[in-house]
Structure formats: C-alpha cells, structure tokens
User: Fold this.
Amino acid sequence: MPTDVVRLSEIDDAADIERIWAGLLLANRADVPRPANVIGRIASGNALVVEHQPGPITGAMGWRKSQTADGVILRLDPFLPEGEEAERALFQWAATKPTSATNQAAVRIWLPGDGPWLVADYGFTHVRTFLRLDRALLVDVQPSPLPADLVVIDANDALFNLQDWTDMYNSAFAGEWEHWQSSAFDMHNFVISSPTFCLAALDQGTNPVVLALCHLETLAHDARAQPVADVVILCVASRRRKEGIGESMLREAMIRLRTAGARSATIRADMGSRYESYRLYEGVGFQKALEFRIWERSTP
Ligand SMILES: CC(C)(COP(=O)(O)OP(=O)(O)OC[C@H]1O[C@@H](n2cnc3c(N)ncnc32)[C@H](O)[C@@H]1OP(=O)(O)O)[C@@H](O)C(=O)NCCC(=O)NCCS
Assistant:
C-alpha cells in the first residue's frame, strides 16, 4: 500500500483523529495538547498525518512556529508514528518541506525520550532534554513560609501590575534557552484566562519577587488525576534566589489550586538549564512523568 503524508485539514476522519490524540495522551507520549490547541492546529492545516491510500492513519504530527533568540523555529510535536514507514515519512517531511519558509533558523522536533528514533538519519541532532514532572495533590502538600517581607497576591488584586510582572518574567528568564522577550500583551493573554491562579509575591516596594503562573485544567483522555494544576511558569528574581522562595511559592500555588479542586499538579524542567530547577521540583514531591528530547536541524 502506498504511504502518503497529507495535511490533517484535508481529511475528514474524526474517529481517527480522536484515536491518535487519545493514544498519545494515554500512553504519556504527549504533553498538554489542550483541545483548543489541537482543533486550532487542525483547522489551520498545521498538522500532518501519514495515511495509507486508502486506509488507516499511521502517524501524526502537529507544528507551530515560535520566535526564539535563535530566530524563528518550526517546532514539531507531538509525534506518533505507527511503524517505521510512517516514522520515516514524517521525518522526511520535517527535513525537507519546511526549509522553504523564509526567516526560519531551524526545525526542532520534540520526541518522547524512550526512542530509539530514526531522526538522526535525517540530519537532526539532539540539542536539549525537557522533563514533565507530575505530583498527586494529596493532603500531604505542606506550606513553607515565605520571607516575612513578602506578600502573596493574585492577578485580581489591586496591586497587580501587568508591566512589572512582564519585566520580572523577562529578566528572570534572560539568557535561558529558547527564551524570547514576552510583551505585556502576551502576559495579559496568559493572566486573563485564570487570574486567580496567577500568583506573585511582592516585596515592601510592591516589586514582584516570584511569579507562579498556573492553569487549572480538565483534560480528556489524560492519565493524570483530574483536574490538573499546571504550573506553567515559576521564576524568582535573580537578586532573591536560593532563599527558598521558589519552593515556598510552588507549595503555595499547589495548595491554592488543590483548594480549587485540583487533584494533581504538573511542572516542566529544562534539563540543560543552569538553575537545575528539577532538583527543587523533586524536593517537593514531583516525579518525572515524561521526557522529551529535542532534535534540531538547522536551516541551511
Ligand atoms: C528555578 C528557580 C525558580 C528557583 O528559585 P529559588 O527561589 O532560587 O529556589 P529555592 O531557593 O526554593 O531553591 C533553590 C535551591 O536553593 C536551596 N536553598 C533554599 N534556601 C536556601 C538558603 N537559605 N541558603 C542556601 N540555599 C538555599 C534549595 O535547597 C535549592 O537547592 P537545590 O537546587 O539543591 O534543590 C530560579 O532559579 C529561577 O527563577 N530561575 C530562572 C527561571 C527558571 O529556570 N525557572 C524554572 C523553569 S524550568
């Protein structure tokens, strides 16, 4: 049977799409593809499938472009091939088709860490590893006090200052891999979706010293206890690191989201980061749930 790579928007097989995404999530091979994101990628044609003509879908891949300090990156994930033929078809597509885009520095594919994958055959090299760490939100999450000069607010508070939060986020992540300066508009879009779960601790001058930006989500087909407290951003101002502030705020965020109904929590760590944040997360009970290796092919 011939194998073909087609855009997902060109096919109309909801049952197959459902099967692919459910399979990825249940097998812990994809990270938070929120239903809206999946639908958006499909609707805009930003997803591929491999299918036998005529016949079943044997692989799938979504993508998005993101601006990073290295230039525009075409980021491919998640990825699900069923068999070598589908795997090769998707890597072949990734290695060739996107390079015609202008202003594109590289293609990066996020692959579950449990390979082996044939991606090296297509000119990709392993550049980074990320973990998703999960934790059950049981009664055992204990608070640890913040330094006495700090007070916790959420984004509904009168002291919430969008520009201060944006500046703090950008300076905390400056120099980190793939970091691109966020605008106040980006921060607004994040915070507006769940202001109660976007937390900061302010010092006496009302400057944010730590941010914990979270979502509370219920995801279909997901292996974690639902709903999930997703700690999307945790950062501490460089002048106040190693005082236990990151740990205290992470505990505070988990306790607040648990009170709101969360039954598990998730956080991600860049294993190449000099801050080794995974140590902090493991120390408060998070355990590795997914590993992603990022494979890169530069655009010539
Ligand atoms: C990662 C980050 C949030 C940690 O914040 P932090 O406030 O420094 O974290 P903590 O102080 O709670 O813990 C950090 C380390 O300091 C130690 N520590 C805590 N209090 C301390 C104290 N009084 N004296 C010395 N060390 C202390 C902790 O034990 C921990 O050690 P470990 O790395 O061996 O586990 C911070 O470095 C940061 O914002 N980095 C940039 C952004 C980033 O990488 N965010 C994570 C995204 S993946």
Notes: The radius of gyration is 20 Å. Helices lie at 14-26, 35-43, 84-96, 162-173, 184-193, 245-259, 277-283. The pocket of coenzyme A is lined by residues 172-173, 176, 234-236, 241-247, 269-270, 273, 275-277, 279-280, 283 (CB under 6 Å). Residues 135-290 form a domain with the Aminopeptidase fold (CATH 3.40.630.30).
